[in-house]
Amino acid sequence: MELDLVEISPTAVPPVCKIIDYQKFLYQQKKKQKEIKAKAAKVVVKEIRFGPNTDDHDFDFKLKHAQKFLEEGAKLKTYVMFKGRSILFKEQGEILLLRFAEALEEHGKVEQLPKLEGKRMIMLIAPKKKKI
């Protein structure tokens, strides 16, 4: 009959085996894996860049964009880029990011607090789960 003895569940006691066509079994397993992968949510990360001396109007403009991104379900990577001697204003950059996080409190939650990496101070914000 050209069928194979295939072990379906090796961890069960006793192990479960079936007499089936092995190639067909592999094909169906691959198909199931592909379906599961297609249903998985893809995480989109949007970036918003500030300077250490960002003014109120620019801050508000970027805040509106951030709210839109979070409502769409994207994560936010906000960072302050320090150029040249502006690295002296680390505290100013941190205050700016914390103010940004506070303004977005109802739309998202802070995943990673401001952290200095080289010439960038980075903070991650994840969207809040929508209540059904």
Describe this structure in words.
The protein has 132 residues and is an alpha+beta fold. The chain has two domains: 4-39, no CATH class; 45-127, Translation initiation factor 3 (IF-3), C-terminal domain (Translation Initiation Factor IF3), CATH 3.30.110.10. Helix content is 36%, strand content 32%. The longest helix is centred in the N-terminal third of the chain and has 18 residues, at 22-39. The protein is elongated, with a radius of gyration of 25 Å.
Give the tags.
single chain, 132 residues, alpha+beta, Translation Initiation Factor IF3, 2 domains, 4-stranded mixed beta sheet, two-stranded antiparallel ribbon
Question: Can you describe this structure in just a few lines?
Answer:
It contains three helices and six strands. The chain has 132 residues and is α+β, with helices and mostly antiparallel strands.
How far is it from the N-terminal to the C-terminal residue, by CA? 53 Å
Shape: elongated
Give the count of structural domains.
Answer: 2
Strand order of the largest sheet: 3-4-6-5
Overall mean pLDDT stands at: 88
- What is the percent of helical residues? 25-40%
